[in-house]
């Protein structure tokens, strides 16, 4: 199966709002929720994509001619590339009736693990979503990162117990989900966390903890204070707050501030292996990609994920070779402008 076939197949079964565009840049879905768009104007998702395109790579082939190694060592695991599938939920609401959250996560976790990477799985108000996600991760020897919403502490402890049982190598919280409409007015309340709250959750996790949704140096320092092992520089795909900067605009300063103390991931509009290269050059250790993995699953199930992942890795390998970097450690800030 070719990637173009994956896209064509996806267009026959995704919902009315997602168009499975050749380039997922946020323009077609815009401000449409339900759907993969934003609760606001949708301009932040578009800005996320555009800002990566404004960064250029510095080609330099006057270097040793040898194979490129894209492998990443993270929290005791080795992955084929510094690429992870981002957590996405409410599949039928946002993307169409072909898959529910349980089916989507089951396909994604297994396919990503088989492709040599890992998936972050989503969460929802239905407890079965986390139960199924952790079961899928357990079947793949813990190769996946369950992502919890910022629930109340008792709900979180219930979910963390499931996560411990599955043996996942890390756990995440998309704390930026505090801005999602469905988390409003819940009982018990869900939403933003203080440093003290977050530290309690990190300590309860028992495995490396990833805080997703950091957009400032101040926020990164607070995550560090809470003993997080990693952060994801993320504005929730531009879905939760208008007038945010793009992730590409804040990554470098955040990496400079805390990169020596924790792992740095970034998401938001990253769509190619060249974009991955740019993110690594600006200080990220790895990237998360969301909506295009949905297209891959809807368009080709496990084979779609395999095809899309291979495409990203091939593009990253080529960018590294053409810029004189033969391992992730050799990617430096001066390779982009």
From TrEMBL:
Locate the residues binding FMN.
212, 234, 236, 267-271, 290-291
State the source organism's domain of life: Bacteria
Kindly give the Gene3D superfamilies that the UniProt entry links to this protein.
Answer: Aldolase class I
Q: Which CDD domains does UniProt cross-reference here? A: alpha_hydroxyacid_oxid_FMN
As cofactor, the record names:
FMN
Give one GO molecular function term.
oxidoreductase activity
Q: What are the alphabetically sorted keywords of the record?
A: Flavoprotein, FMN, Oxidoreductase
List of residues binding glyoxylate:
239
User: Where would I find the FMN hydroxy acid dehydrogenase domain in this sequence?
Assistant: 37-337
The record's listing under PANTHER family reads: 2-HYDROXYACID OXIDASE 1, S -2-HYDROXY-ACID OXIDASE-RELATED
Protein name listed in UniProt? L-lactate oxidase
- This protein's species is Sporofaciens musculi
Which lineage? Bacteria, Bacillati, Bacillota, Clostridia, Lachnospirales
